[in-house]
UniProtKB/TrEMBL annotation:
This is General transcription factor IIH subunit 4. One of its GO terms (molecular function) is double-stranded DNA binding. Component of the general transcription and DNA repair factor IIH (TFIIH) core complex which is involved in general and transcription-coupled nucleotide excision repair (NER) of damaged DNA. GO terms for biological process: nucleotide-excision repair; transcription by RNA polymerase II. Residues 418-485 form the Transcription factor Tfb2 C-terminal domain. Component of the 7-subunit TFIIH core complex composed of XPB/ERCC3, XPD/ERCC2, GTF2H1, GTF2H2, GTF2H3, GTF2H4 and GTF2H5, which is active in NER. The core complex associates with the 3-subunit CDK-activating kinase (CAK) module composed of CCNH/cyclin H, CDK7 and MNAT1 to form the 10-subunit holoenzyme (holo-TFIIH) active in transcription. GO terms for cellular component: transcription factor TFIIH core complex; transcription factor TFIIH holo complex. Belongs to the TFB2 family.
């Protein structure tokens, strides 16, 4: 009988075999649909008890899915599958099937049996009831709908945009500042925000002094647009709701109510539960709402909350607090020089993640893309596509004019784009796979039997017949182990 040992492998090879070191995890940014699909059915049922959540889900559904939902919303019996399929042309059969899968995974509708053995679709009763309330009115008033006297110190949209961005900059400055107690411009960040950054693995404790330092995912987070950053940050906050003693469904409903609010209008905090009042103060710290004093009975939602999930959101606010479309400020030349017309410390710090900064003037920063600076960004977890996307997103209008003149797909010089990708390819010569090693076989026959079985079920990563060593995938380890036990007991 042979003896096999299994252990996690951590080695690399340059001769065509796969390295067995797992790649560091990338930042996973879920949209609303992906977030809800990750929730168990009973949790979805609880969330759909809130009309604001049902309305937000309906708003973000694909267009065909919204058509299906609204057509059967007032039908009190299941609709046969064939009837629903007939609502669209056969040309779009694949799209209809995909939409049906989305609605099923979100728990919006379910398949049920009909008389005669047919199958039909019916909306989830909880979702159906509360979507009707959201669209037609009725039910319990929304938690922030109490009437208010005119505010003698009302705030306009321009002020709210400036306030929101100044608060959100605190979080970004803290990350770029490598864990300093204050942002780069002296703004403070709340301990609660630091805990969320650590929970989301955007930052981690340094092994030497315990101070927070940015992670691979944190670098990727900084290159997202503001709306995506706020949504990902709030999802991480919602993951910690139960630990804070807050109700997830109640907080999520409040968040969506803010997204349906009118920008520039004040709302009442009277009558909110203690949990929602705590949640409101956290939103205030992150810049999603403005409130002059903690005990004041009114607050103003900001654009950060207003655009939290909407795919058709108004362009996000800029560093100066304006709500206009982001103006390009970066010029990239064919000699890899980068000129950034900005006085924002945050934008300068972001450029410094992947460029070597040379000069800084009051409203201009000059840097250069070098192999070392770009590879340093790669080591931090930033990808070539993210660097290129960031430079394209903030390209100066003159670069777009050149793009139209020479009829290229990118506003950046092709030589720069190609070189950044080549620098990345230098680091991607290996394929990384996590696996389990089997060795110390007592006979060649035992090795051949187990090797052939692993190959037959498609879990073999690498094998060496001379040393009687093989590596299988982590997921296939259990099947191979069970087979080996059966084979050993059979006296093979």
């Amino acid at each position: 009988m042979s003896d096999s040992k299994s252990s996690k492998a951590a080695s690399s090879s340059s001769s065509g075999t796969s390295s067995l070191i797992a790649k560091p995890a990338n930042l996973e940014c879920k949209n609303l649909e992906e977030y809800l699909r990750s929730r168990p059915p009973d949790a979805l049922e609880k969330l759909y008890n809130y009309p604001a959540i049902c309305l937000a889900v309906y708003r973000e559904l694909p267009e065909i899915a919204r058509q299906f939902v609204i057509r059967i919303l007032f039908v009190e019996q299941p609709i046969p599958h064939a009837v629903v399929s007939s609502w669209g042309s056969q040309i779009y059969a694949k799209e209809n099937t995909a939409v049906s899968k989305v609605l099923t995974e979100l728990g919006v509708w379910r398949s049920t049996g009909l008389t005669g053995g047919l199958e039909g679709w019916e909306l989830c009763s909880t979702f159906k009831k509360n979507l009707k309330i959201a669209l037609l009115g009725g039910g319990r008033p929304w938690s922030m709908s109490n009437a208010l006297d005119p505010d003698q110190k009302s705030r306009d949209i321009e002020f709210l945009d400036g306030y929101a961005m100044s608060r959100w900059r605190c979080v970004l400055h803290y990350m770029v500042g490598a864990g300093s107690s204050k942002g780069m411009e002296g703004e403070g960040i709340s301990p609660d925000a630091v805990r969320i950054l650590l929970h989301a693995n955007l930052m981690k404790r340094d092994e030497t002094d315990g101070s927070p330092v940015i992670t691979r995912q944190g670098f990727q987070f900084l290159l997202l647009d503001t709306q995506a950053q706020v949504w990902h940050f709030m999802l991480q906050y919602l993951d910690t709701c139960e630990a804070r003693g807050l109700d997830l469904a109640e907080c999520l409903s409040m968040l969506f109510q803010l997204s349906f609010s009118t920008l520039g209008r004040d709302y009442s905090s009277e009558g909110l539960s203690q949990g929602l009042l705590t949640f409101l103060q956290h939103l205030r710290e992150f810049g999603l709402v403005y409130q002059r004093k903690r005990k004041e009975g009114r607050f103003y939602p900001t654009r950060l909350a207003h655009n939290i999930t909407s795919r058709n959101a108004v362009p996000t606010i800029q560093e100066d607090g304006s709500a206009a479309q982001d103006k390009g400020y970066i010029v990239v030349e064919t000699n890899y020089r980068v000129y950034a017309y900005t006085d924002s410390n945050l934008q300068v710090a972001l450029l410094g993640l992947f460029t070597e900064l040379l000069y800084r003037f009051p409203n201009l920063v000059v840097g250069v893309l070098t192999r070392d600076s770009v590879r340093q960004a790669f080591r931090g977890g930033i990808t070539a596509d993210q660097i290129i996307s960031y430079l394209e997103q903030h390209a100066h209008p003159t670069m777009h004019n050149v793009e139209q003149t020479i009829n290229t797909k990118s506003a950046l010089p092709p030589t720069v784009v190609d070189q950044i990708k080549l620098w990345e390819n230098e680091r991607n010569r290996f394929t990384y796979t996590e696996g389990v090693v089997y060795n110390q076989f007592l006979s060649q026959g035992d090795f051949n039997t187990l090797r052939d079985y692993a190959q037959s079920i498609g879990v073999m990563i690498w094998q060496n017949e001379r040393t009687r060593t093989m590596v299988v995938t982590k997921n296939g380890h259990d099947d191979v182990k069970k087979f080996w036990k059966r084979y050993s007991k059979g006296g093979g």
